[in-house]
């Protein structure tokens, strides 16, 4: 609605300029705000105060001229001047009532499909092979997944790109160690503990010269496409990704094996890219290495910064891979837009890779490459989140703890649900809480991981929203089978406020998609739930004395709220329950 009033005012300014009331060179920053007190209308603007001086009029006088020049709108019931020259808008509650009714009946809940639909690649999760997912991987994984779901809901073609770290010199030692394990106890090969596996491989590499020799040989063979090494490598990748898949499934993250586009995919493209950069005069030799100098990046000493794309020993780097990767996403995948959900500490790395890719002509100007950066996950002490002994927390263990805590919480609530229903609640609340804690913060900053906050049933948490949803379901159960949602009438201020919020769902979805910031959806859903609770207290539904019409109208508001909550949480990858 703000948008609509904004448009009316823009038109009005144009009219006033045409009429010579306002000089043609003023371009006021039109502002429309929610009023604090609904008795003074729904929206207000200070435009008359901004324009009074250039127009040489007093603000109240000008306010009246603005009102007179305002185009008619069926959505506005009344416009008034207030105080020194504010203009207050009273929205037409009948128009609003019709809109909410339509929203409740619309499967898309008022969310507009994107035109034109784009092909959007989303780079997210990206764990490393032969390592277990650590706690910090949750950020990229859940934020990226929420953005992916939102973009898909808008009708874009979304390509999930799980940029798994599946290439590098460490694979020589990993293959050698896998071989050793297979030789020693061929049948019970269990790589349950990948951390231990990696540690042991490294230990052998550092301490056993013959092993190290073999490992170095395997790196060369793997890169040369040797079949045995390739098979062993594939085993490591598959084992790791099978473990990660269990985490994705637990977290209700929409990634699967087909989305893996690891670093190895780009490896065969690197020699060609490097020689192309050389041919274009961008890459030059420097002490045996190949370097691209970028004027855009200056080191501390003010010198142009060089980005190494091939080492002296012929090896390629993480940056070389990301140059190839950007090229591939544009040329082969046909991306119009690429969103990278990566730790903010990798910003410079990405900027260098993209600057080179653009200069080389691999990524045209109209394709947008966006670093959806995020900060770190901190413990309550404000330091990076670690185990008590200072080690990295495994993501799987974090999820176990979340379920345990949710189970305890459930037990303390003396629920009368059946055991299997309780288990479903525990799972949905645990995963919801942990994801939402991450999703609800502006991703650009670090955030403090705090169990007590995220599992609270009060405040901006998943359990609060999930509970709001089940509460609406129970209203419907109590309303009885023959109670039907019906025509909406908006009389009480709480009803109007709720209806207006419901109409903003489209804005919230569009904002998440535009910025890759799911916290905007969280804030929206939290505000919506708050307004619902106020409405529910002020406007009885299942009480005696409520007329059938009023009950039907209020049930429509309940219905629309439940649907928006459910859809909004689904876009965040969070489940709702009928009871809890
Ligand atoms: N595997 C990397 C890591 O764990 C993240 C990869 C991000 N994606 C990319 N295109 N560089 O840090």
Automatic annotation (TrEMBL):
Where exactly are the transmembrane stretches of this chain? none
Q: Which residues form the Arginyl tRNA synthetase N-terminal domain?
A: 3-91
SUPFAM superfamilies hit by this protein? Anticodon-binding domain of a subclass of class I aminoacyl-tRNA synthetases, Arginyl-tRNA synthetase (ArgRS), N-terminal 'additional' domain, Nucleotidylyl transferase
Coiled-coil region list: none
Q: Any idea of its EC number? A: 6.1.1.19
Record's subcellular location = Cytoplasm
User: Which residue intervals define the domain DALR anticodon binding in the entry?
Assistant: 465-580
**GO MF, one example:** arginine-tRNA ligase activity
Broad class of where this protein is predominantly found: cytoplasm
Question: What reaction does this enzyme carry out catalytically?
Answer: tRNA(Arg) + L-arginine + ATP = L-arginyl-tRNA(Arg) + AMP + diphosphate
Q: Name one Pfam family in it.
A: DALR_1
Kindly state which keywords UniProt assigns to this record, in alphabetical order: Aminoacyl-tRNA synthetase, ATP-binding, Cytoplasm, Ligase, Nucleotide-binding, Protein biosynthesis
List the PANTHER family hit by this protein, alphabetically.
ARGININE--TRNA LIGASE, CYTOPLASMIC (PTHR11956:SF5), ARGINYL-TRNA SYNTHETASE (PTHR11956)
- Quaternary structure annotation from Swiss-Prot or TrEMBL: Monomer.
**NCBIfam families, alphabetically?**
argS
Concerning its family, UniProt says:
Belongs to the class-I aminoacyl-tRNA synthetase family.
From the Swiss-Prot or TrEMBL record, give the protein name.
Answer: Arginine--tRNA ligase
**What gene makes this protein?**
argS
């Amino acid at each position: 609605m703000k948008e609509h009033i904004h448009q009316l005012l823009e038109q009005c300014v144009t009219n006033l300029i045409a009429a010579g009331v306002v000089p043609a060179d003023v371009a006021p920053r039109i502002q429309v705000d929610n009023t604090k007190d609904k008795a003074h209308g729904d929206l207000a603007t200070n435009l008359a105060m901004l324009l009074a001086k250039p127009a040489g009029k007093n603000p109240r006088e000008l306010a009246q001229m603005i009102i007179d020049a305002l185009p008619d709108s069926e959505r506005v019931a009344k416009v008034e001047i207030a105080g020194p020259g504010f203009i207050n808008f009273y929205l037409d509650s009948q128009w609003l009532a019709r809109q909410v009714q339509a929203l409740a009946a619309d499967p898309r809940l008022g969310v507009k499909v994107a035109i034109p639909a784009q092909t959007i690649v989303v780079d997210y999760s990206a764990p490393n092979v032969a390592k277990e997912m650590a706690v910090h991987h949750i950020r990229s994984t859940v934020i990226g997944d929420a953005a992916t779901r939102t973009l898909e809901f808008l009708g874009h073609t979304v390509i999930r790109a799980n940029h798994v770290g599946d290439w590098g010199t460490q694979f020589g030692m990993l293959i050698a160690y896998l071989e050793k394990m297979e030789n020693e106890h061929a049948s019970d090969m269990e790589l349950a503990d990948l951390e231990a596996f990696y540690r042991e491989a490294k230990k052998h590499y550092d301490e056993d010269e013959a092993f190290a020799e073999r490992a170095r040989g395997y790196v060369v063979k793997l890169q040369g496409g040797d079949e045995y090494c390739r098979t062993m490598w594939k085993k490591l990748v598959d084992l790791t990704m099978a473990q990660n898949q269990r985490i994705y499934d637990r977290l209700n993250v929409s990634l699967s094996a087909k989305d893996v586009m690891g670093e190895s995919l780009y490896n065969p493209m690197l020699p060609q890219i490097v020689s192309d950069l050389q041919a274009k005069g961008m890459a030059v030799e420097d002490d045996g290495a190949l370097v691209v100098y970028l004027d855009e990046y200056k080191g501390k000493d003010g010198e142009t910064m060089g980005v190494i794309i091939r080492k002296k020993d012929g090896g390629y780097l993480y940056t070389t891979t990301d140059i190839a990767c950007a090229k591939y996403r544009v040329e082969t995948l046909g991306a119009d837009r690429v969103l990278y959900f990566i730790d903010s500490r990798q910003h410079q790395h990405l900027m260098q890779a993209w600057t080179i890719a653009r200069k080389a002509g691999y990524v045209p100007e109209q394709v947008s490459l966006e670093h959806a950066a995020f900060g770190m996950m901190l413990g309550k002490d404000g330091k990076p989140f670690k185990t008590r002994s200072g080690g990295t927390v495994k993501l799987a263990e974090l999820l176990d703890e979340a379920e345990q805590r949710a189970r305890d919480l459930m037990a303390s609530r003396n629920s009368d649900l059946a055991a299997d229903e309780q288990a479903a609640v525990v799972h949905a609340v645990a995963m919801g809480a942990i994801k939402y804690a991450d999703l609800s913060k502006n991703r650009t900053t670090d955030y403090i991981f705090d169990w007590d906050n995220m599992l609270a049933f009060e405040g901006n948490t998943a359990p609060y929203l999930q509970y709001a949803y089940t509460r609406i379901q129970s209203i419907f159960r109590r309303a009885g089978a023959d109670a039907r949602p019906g025509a909406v009438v908006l009389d009480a201020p709480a009803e109007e406020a709720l209806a207006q919020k419901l109409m903003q769902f489209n804005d919230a979805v569009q904002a998440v998609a535009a910025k890759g910031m799911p916290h905007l959806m969280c804030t929206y859903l939290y505000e919506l739930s708050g307004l619902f609770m106020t409405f529910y207290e002020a406007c009885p539904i299942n009480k005696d004395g409520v007329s059938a019409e009023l009950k039907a109208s209020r049930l429509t508001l309940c219905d629309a709220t439940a649907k928006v909550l459910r859809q909004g949480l689904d876009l965040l990858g969070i489940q709702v329950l009928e009871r809890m």
